[in-house]
């Protein structure tokens, strides 16, 4: 335990203000940050792209707010497990809460491709606390056929001390694949388009122009003229102001290059490209350009998002948490469940139709349906036999 704490500690000369890049992007040079668009892509700059931030936010918010319960398999049935370990109750104020823990794990998988969770244990090897670690600070080694972890270059740690939840893995790989690293060219193009737009409107939303002055001007005169023109007409606040030219000067407006005129289309395409990387329907991040805006079109996209994006991620996290249960000596019949029932039941009309079908078929009971709708169970109304 003391050794593990030393591995997590930071010396006094290392304590300083840190950014997202300081904490989660130290080793990106392994993949390279430069892109063909000229933009340097790392975790910090990638999260400044609105589509990337929106995708990571909507996935992490959905996963972190799912109800978490423990169950025990009993044959073909499952029953709620009541002897819940302390760490899974998330009731102590001195530990990371459920939403924060699941959010950090999800963000780590979505950006770095891996989540590493430190497990603090008491003398009986019971888990008393969990912390999500900087994934770039953890090195994975294969020692004697077992995976070991080195934190901040310190001592080797076992999977009882470090829980590893990987994202998508290459065959034979030990670390998950980072979407930010592998999609850096697409993200870099989005960054370049955003920078172009900012520069375009920063210059008054006007294309390039020339001012012809008869005679010759010195370098100082040229600089003074350019500075005076930019001060008077640069920026959107000064756009369309009247320009007065003297001394025979002539203003010539250069036509807008067709490639420049297409930057908005480029930005629109990059939104759909980035949402494709994260498996998020574009309308969920505010882009309904190519989406059906009514009826079952969006509903079908939402269901696809739940089934093909959220469900695999949730099952990865459940598998990791189940590993913690096994490490505490609980039988494999006890498992963690992040319930997605509320997401899958859809809107009010869809839920009511589903409930009606389930009740009529005998799949559901009235009190199960009432529990899903956060209503109290009905009182027992079964007729009682008259006393003899």
Number of helical stretches of at least 4 residues: 14
Strand content: 5-15%
Strand arrangement, major sheet: 2-1-11
N-to-C SSE string, H for helix and E for strand: HHHHEEHEEEEEEHHEHEHHHEHHH
Radius of gyration: 29 Å
Count of distinct structural domains? 3
Mean pLDDT: 77
Distance between the termini: 67 Å
User: In this structure, how is the largest beta sheet organized?
Assistant: 3 strands, antiparallel
Oligomer: single chain
Net shape: extended
Topology overview:
Blueprint: H1 2-8, H2 20-24, H3 43-46, H4 50-64, E1 68-74, E2 77-80, H5 98-111, E3 114-121, E4 127-132, E5 138-143, E6 146-151, E7 156-157, E8 162-166, H6 179-182, H7 184-202, E9 209-212, H8 219-233, E10 250-253, H9 258-261, H10 263-278, H11 296-327, E11 334-338, H12 341-344, H13 348-361, H14 366-372
Antiparallel strand pairs: 1-2, 1-11, 3-4, 3-8, 5-6, 6-7, 9-10
Helix pairs in contact: 4-5, 4-10, 7-10
Textual characterization of the structure:
This protein is of the alpha+beta class. It folds into three domains: 19-185 and 266-341, no CATH class; 209-253; 345-375. It is built from 14 helices and eleven strands. It has helices at residues 2-8, 20-24, 43-46, 50-64, 98-111, 179-182, 184-202, 219-233, 258-261, 263-278, 296-327, 341-344, 348-361, 366-372; strands spanning 68-74, 77-80, 114-121, 127-132, 138-143, 146-151, 156-157, 162-166, 209-212, 250-253, 334-338. Strands 2-1-11 form a three-stranded antiparallel beta sheet. 23% of the residues are buried.
